[in-house]
């Protein structure tokens, strides 16, 4: 995809749609599909972990475990990405820095803000689809 020829509004709309699908896959426990929204060698660094998760298999396993733990605890998690700052790079990648909120709703309870984070991604185009090559998440208050 030649980013120089892509109007900024269209670029933004495509990336926003990517995140909408990406987060809904995660929140509904579709771990394998969610992992396929990363490159084959994609990385995901979270606070408190000594090393980032690497590769689709490891990403899917982690997402599956987290979803199972949420279900066992009677919780629903919803991820929201907003305030996207999108910067195209000369190498064809796109850097996205955004705020990520996680809303937790206990079974029979009221939703509450669970986490507020900053998410920094490097996105690449693979066959007309955005994929995360690298993600670094930092938590407010951590």
Task: State the strand order across the main sheet.
Answer: 2-1-6-5-4-3
Overall pLDDT level? 95
How far apart, in Å, are the first and last alpha carbons? 37 Å
Low-confidence stretches: none
Give the helix tally. Answer: 3
Q: Write down how many β-strands occur, each being a DSSP E stretch of 2 or more residues.
A: 6
In percent, how helical is the residue content? 25-40%
| Structural class determined from secondary elements | alpha+beta
In the CATH hierarchy, what is the architecture at level 2? Roll
Domain SnoaL-like: 12-135
Protein name: Nuclear transport factor 2 family protein
Pfam families: SnoaL_4 (PF13577)
Organism: Streptomyces arboris
Which short descriptors sum up this protein?
SnoaL-like; NTF2-like_dom_sf; Nuclear transport factor 2 family protein; 142 residues; single chain; six-stranded mixed β-sheet; 3 helices; 6 strands; alpha+beta; Nuclear Transport Factor 2, Chain: A
């Amino acid at each position: 995809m030649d980013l120089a020829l892509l109007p900024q509004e269209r670029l933004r709309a495509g990336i926003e749609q990517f995140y909408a699908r990406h987060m809904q896959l995660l929140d509904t426990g579709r771990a394998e599909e969610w992992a396929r929204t990363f490159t084959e060698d994609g990385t995901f660094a979270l606070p408190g972990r000594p090393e980032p998760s690497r590769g689709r298999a490891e990403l899917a396993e982690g997402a599956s475990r987290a979803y199972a733990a949420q279900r066992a605890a009677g919780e629903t998690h919803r991820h929201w990405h907003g305030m996207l700052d999108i910067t195209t790079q000369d190498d064809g990648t796109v850097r996205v820095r955004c705020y990520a909120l996680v809303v937790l709703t206990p079974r029979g309870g009221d939703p509450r803000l669970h986490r507020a984070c900053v998410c920094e991604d490097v996105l690449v185009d693979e066959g007309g689809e955005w994929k995360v090559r690298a993600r670094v998440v930092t938590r407010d208050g951590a």
